[in-house]
Amino acid sequence: MIEKLKDVEARFERIEAELSDPAAATDVGRYTKLMKERKNLLPTVEKYREYVRVSSEAEDALALSGEDDREMADMALEEYRALKKRIPVLEEELRTLLLPRDPDDDKNVVVEIRAGTGGEEAALFAGVLFRMYTMYSDSKGFRTEVVNCSETGLGGYKEITFTVSGEGAYSRFKFESGVHRVQRVPETETSGRIHTSAATVAVLPEAEDVEVEINPADLEIETIKSSGAGGQHVNKTESAIRMIHKPTGIVIECQDERSQFKNRDKAMKLLRAKLYDMKLREQTDEIASKRRSQVGSGDRSERIRTYNFP
Question: N or C: which end of the chain has fewer CB within 10 A?
């Protein structure tokens, strides 16, 4: 482990030397890549340097514990024992930091929530999940933005798609993909019976322009009138966008913004995320098939959590 940590520190120092060269800033792509790598390596390097410092101080304290001055020797021995307890903790933290990172962890995410079995109660549950995720995002300092939604009469959602932006957003949300089930007495129930309903959650890492190439010729874009609750704007201007990616058949609708251009931009962002997710799933098919034989399918049809309301 120590040799690997020394290699990480050496790489970090090479990056810092390259970044300090004024010529490095002229290549924006290279500079951005180096800054990102430096940021990823920094926690490991800082923890390793703390480990080296504590180990060195422990050795010095042990040497001083053999002094003739009894008071100084006792103080040194006490310090040595405290430092010796700290070393295994640092070693465990370093092992964790050396684990391979998911390259998508720092990306923004697109979250899709759809009502499943349970009718209107499932739509209400989808609304509860949406509020839960937006409140969680606020607590972490992330920014949420609704891309598209289909509301029901009682305030639930047949489906809602939103983005979560912030450092480490995907690492926080990636394990939420799957079927969420709720068991409760719904607002729509008059006789007090407990119902079981479900909603599906899909979490997609937001793809950057360089990761997914979209040929404009493959897109069919239509402008449509927004639908939903009344108002002067809704149903009077064609600001909503329906985008069809012809090679895959993916259809994206976006009507959240009043501006047609903003809706187009959001639709393109969502399409890029879906294509990136499709690309990732194709790459991991072989691994998934092996894993499936051991732990189940692992896809989005698996129930990952049940919420019980007494």
Answer: C
